[in-house]
């Protein structure tokens, strides 16, 4: 077979190049036509009052909108009794506590801070707060001391108590200083309640198993209480600082007396009395401010009001009033 001559070879190359250019032009023409049709369809939809087709949006725009939708929505809560909305925390708030003098509110969150708010600012336009940093952890529970010069927190990861002292500055603010050492780790289950006696003589911590610990202010365990309630749901110190009570899986509220000597030295914790009458687990209870009454709420759908102003060594508390839950909207009928 004879080889192609130079002129013939050049002609063949030109022909192939021309075909390639024609194919490229055809592809480009088709792409432009498709873009024009898409733009025209979107413009027509907008002109006719219809929203543009979401399928025609670029992928990056879709991804941006998807990320935007995943952001939590901020709800504006309104109520005729709403005094203020306090905003400073950047995480979920787990607990709050008013000081005994009513001047301050403490809040703790998983943003590793405790905020102290002045209640006199609640009706003002701006709500200032003082921040206490919780180093290397975050607080899940917070309680003011009776003299309002300190507060305690329960650490989520450390599973123990930390004490913060409040020192007033010349400008009216406070400096928060954590004690050098946290309380020793003693509980083996998740904590459910903490409290400080109004006398300032002891601290109470209760965990979700059956354990309640009575501490002195230096972090030493004075007494260990086994509630025998399968598991604890709540515990509290009475306003008079005489009693500690708990409720849990069993249908009763158990109350103990924390005894101190005349010189203020701790002596013992003894069983005082029980509130019996519910037919299912007790969710919560509360003392009255004078410690003469107690109230309890149970899974059986009832609430009960008790007279606890008795000599418990001689007589038991007695039931004053009970109410039956009528519906899920917390409407009650009272049986006196």
TrEMBL record:
GO cellular component: endoplasmic reticulum
Pfam families according to UniProt: WD40
WD repeats: 86-118, 184-218, 275-307
TM helices/strands, residue ranges: none
Disordered as annotated region, ranges: 42-74
Signal peptide: 1-30
Keywords, alphabetical: Repeat, Signal, WD repeat
GO biological process: endoplasmic reticulum unfolded protein response
Comp. bias regions, Basic residues: 57-69
Coiled coil: none
InterPro entries recorded: WBSCR13 (IPR042410), WD40/YVTN_repeat-like_dom_sf (IPR015943), WD40_PAC1 (IPR020472), WD40_repeat_CS (IPR019775), WD40_repeat_dom_sf (IPR036322), WD40_rpt (IPR001680)
Domain of life of the native organism: Eukaryota
UniProt-recorded name of the protein: Transducin beta-like protein 2
Upper lineage: Eukaryota, Metazoa, Chordata, Craniata, Vertebrata
Protein encoded by which gene: TBL2
């Amino acid at each position: 077979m004879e080889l192609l001559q130079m002129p013939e070879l050049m002609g063949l190359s030109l022909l192939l190049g021309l075909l390639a250019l024609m194919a490229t032009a055809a592809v480009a023409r088709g792409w432009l036509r498709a873009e024009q049709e898409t733009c025209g369809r979107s413009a027509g939809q907008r002109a006719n009052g219809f929203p543009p087709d979401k399928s025609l949006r670029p992928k990056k725009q879709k991804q941006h909108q998807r990320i935007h939708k995943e952001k939590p929505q901020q709800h504006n809560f309104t109520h005729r009794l709403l005094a203020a909305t306090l905003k400073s925390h950047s995480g979920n708030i787990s607990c709050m506590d008013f000081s005994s003098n009513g001047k301050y509110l403490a809040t703790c969150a998983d943003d590793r801070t405790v905020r102290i708010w002045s209640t006199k600012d609640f009706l003002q336009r701006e709500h200032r707060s003082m921040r206490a940093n919780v180093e290397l952890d975050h607080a899940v529970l917070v309680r003011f001391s009776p003299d309002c010069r300190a507060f305690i927190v329960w650490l989520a990861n450390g599973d123990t108590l930390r004490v913060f002292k409040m020192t007033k500055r010349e400008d009216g603010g406070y400096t928060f200083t954590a004690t050098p050492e946290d309380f020793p780790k003693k509980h083996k289950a998740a904590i459910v309640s903490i409290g400080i006696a109004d006398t300032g003589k002891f601290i109470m911590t209760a965990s979700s198993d059956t354990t309640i610990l009575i501490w002195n202010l230096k972090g030493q365990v004075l007494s260990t209480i086994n509630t025998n309630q399968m598991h604890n749901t709540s515990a509290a110190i009475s306003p008079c600082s005489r009693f500690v009570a708990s409720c849990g899986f069993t249908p009763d509220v158990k109350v103990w007396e924390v005894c101190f000597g005349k010189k203020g030295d701790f002596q013992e914790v003894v069983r005082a009395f029980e509130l019996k009458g519910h037919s299912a687990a007790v969710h919560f209870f509360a003392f009255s401010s004078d410690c003469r009454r107690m109230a309890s709420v149970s899974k059986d759908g009832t609430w009960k009001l008790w007279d606890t102003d008795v000599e418990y060594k001689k007589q038991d508390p007695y039931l004053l009033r009970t109410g039956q839950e009528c519906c899920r909207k917390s409407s009650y009928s009272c049986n006196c």
